[in-house]
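pinned: reference chain
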Amino acid sequence: MTRIEASLMRLLVTALVLLPAVGEGASGPVREASGSLDDFEILEYLAVGRYPPRTSIELDNNSEILWACRRGRSADQLRQAGIEFADSQIEFLIATNLLVRDSRGDFYTTFPILEEGQVAGLREETANLADELSAVVAADVEALSSKLEIAGLADHAYSLVFSYVLDGMVWGFFEEYQSVVPRMLSARRPFWSGENWAMRPGREFSVGAGSFENRDVKLKITTSKASRSDTRRLLADSRAIRQALEQFAPLSRLEAGRPRALLAEFGLVDADGFWAIPVIDEIEKGPVFRAAETLTSNLVDAIIERIDLEGLQDRYGFRDAPQALVIAYHELMWELMERFEAAGLIQKPEVVSQPSKQNRTDMADAAFLVDRRSKTPNRQDVIEPRTDSPEGAKSRSDGP
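pinned: its structure tokens
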């Protein structure tokens, strides 16, 4: 544990000990009606250390403090509003970059909080933009889907379009063009780096991506609110996942043991230990990779050409253009997925939309591997599903 982390832990323990019990004691101050972030959806685009924003926001009555400070409050004003807190609690929120103290001693919440009217306006803007963009890149989405169908991977199109392209490669292009700030932990920001924001109401349906990387091999899984618990349960066994990725090689099987048993439980390998999910080879750059790269490049160019970042800053109070792009693009990519699906270019797997009706092993439809390792001269990767292993095992790779 670093010195900074040790200090934060002491702050946290102190806050828990000193924080007054909310609503207890007839002689305590009468609490005025106040709001909180409890009914907001907290969204994040982060590199995460030990304390991601959502974790800190949900602790004690931090949600209430952060709501109250969205337009600035002094400590006295917080107390006058009936908001109980310990000084160490405020210091904790400052240390985790959720509050800032100005030169007068007033506290301000550091992240955007969008209420109903603003959310409706932003979603209308991104929906209109998605109508334009989906027409621009429809042929590219269809080309990627066709490559996947040829490879016997049609069931994975939804996951790859979202988690590999929209919520994957696009961010890399944005960083390359310096449109967003790279997410990097540092001594100055050891707990998280990136953007977080709150919106009310949240979307009825949206997808995200869970991932785990080891030695330049990354496992990515497309998740929804309904399927998130299973994904978290799988990725929580970090030792087993790490060992599985260390063993990975195309067309090979995992050794018997905990990693193989865990991945078989979720359908990512078959009973014989062969991988049952697509592999995108980013070194060999096969046809699926090239189709994804073309889609990404054309989409990013179209977004940068059309999106009104300055207007978004003015209308919604975003700090700068990179923050405006991060927040607006999240809404935009979900709108794009809806349009791609409505056009019949992709189809949502039921393990994402209705996981309760599926077996846990169907998670394979929402998962894939990304291989970024340098290759040996004798290595040969193929795009076709493996068919010569026992019981038609399905280890797959996107080769040249």
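why pinned: Residues 1-33, 377-400 have pLDDT under 50 and may be disordered. The chain has 14 helices and nine strands.
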